[in-house]
Amino acid sequence: MRTSAHGEKVVTVVCLNLEKDGGENTPAGGLPQRWLDAHHEILKPLRPDILLRQEATYSHLEDERRMKVAGRLLGMKGFLTPNSVGRNPTALFIREETFPVCERVTYNAKFWRTPPTIVSARLAGVPDAELTLMSVHHAFNSPKGREHEAEETTAFVDRAARQRGGFIVGGDFNEGPLPLGESISPIALETVTDLCHLTHRTNLAPDGSRVSCTYVDRTLLTCGLQDAARYAAHTLGQPAAIGPTAGHAKPGQGGPRRIDRIYVDGRIARAILSVEVVDTTGVSDHFGLRLVLSERGLGEAQRREHQPVPLDRAVALLMPSRSGATA
Fold first, then answer.
1. Phi and psi at residue 35, in whole multiples of 5°?
2. In angstroms, how far is CA 222 from the centroid of its own chain?
3. Which of 26, 56, 235, 320 could form a disulfide with 91 if both were Cys (CB 3.0 to 4.6 A apart)?
């Protein structure tokens, strides 16, 4: 936590899918250059209070050597989740100065291809309110798998609401957002040469066409979360926040897409100061995200001193009609 260019103390959340954890160790056993560049040149200068990492491929090896080196370098406490059928575990790091209490949430993640890392944290100054944090990497190969994973995430949204706490989830969702106030080009099928990727990212429509998967975004929005980048673009006048985060290096997959996102509950959304896409060219095939929150505003959200941000009209249209509801 520090005073920033915003003129107040801030809490910084960074999300990064570091491609295959920067690669294997060097023949001499040293850490790979891309891993070093990611941590020294990108992550350390951002000084995150929360770091949501994906593709921690080799971080379990050598008694979690990479986790320990990253923790010392960044001044953070790291959590690594054992993998499932995938090969790229998720991880999550916390700055204990900002969150003096942080501990892993145990969870039987049998429905996830790549299990999420879930941490319960307490903001300094608001020790009685839990902040649930999730680092996720949704199934790359299955629209139905992502649907199930999104529904599992809503259980933690519900848990946070019932416990009067806060909620932040971020990661690689492996599908794009709904076109709500942002221009999202349809996948140009004639340019897609990776047909497996097309199968993984689209569903078959009744007329036989292929349409992009957007179930995850729809589900998280409908249960009351805010896409932090969309909020920054629409409410704070930061259009660059909704720039694409992946696909730049893979032209055969239909072009760049905004598949890496951070969602927050409606109260925390009021604390958003900025969201930026972090260029990681040469280090990873995914760009990172930096979300800057007002520390004061996050504390107010944790103490529930204000109401959640209302859903904007476009998102409200996703909600089921309540005209027939009874009091």
1. -65, -45
2. 17
3. 56
User: What type of residue is 10?
Assistant: V
Average pLDDT, the chain: 90
Q: In sequence order, what are the beta bridge partners of 199?
A: none
Instruction: State how beta strands 130-137 and 166-172 pair.
Output: parallel
Strand pairing report for 9-17 and 50-54: parallel
Vertex 293 angle, CA 35 and 222, to 5°? 95
pTM to 2 decimals?
0.93
How far apart are alpha carbons 170 and 120 in whole angstroms? Answer: 15
Number of H helices, E strands in the chain: 10, 15
What are the backbone dihedrals phi and psi of residue 166, each rounded to the nearest 5 degrees, phi first?
-110, 170
pLDDT at position 325 over 50: no
| DSSP characters over 188-225 | -GGG---HHHHHHHEEE-TTS-EEE--HHHHHHHHTT-
Question: Rounded to the nearest 5 degrees, what angle is found at the Cα of 226, between the Cα atoms of 225 and 230?
Answer: 155
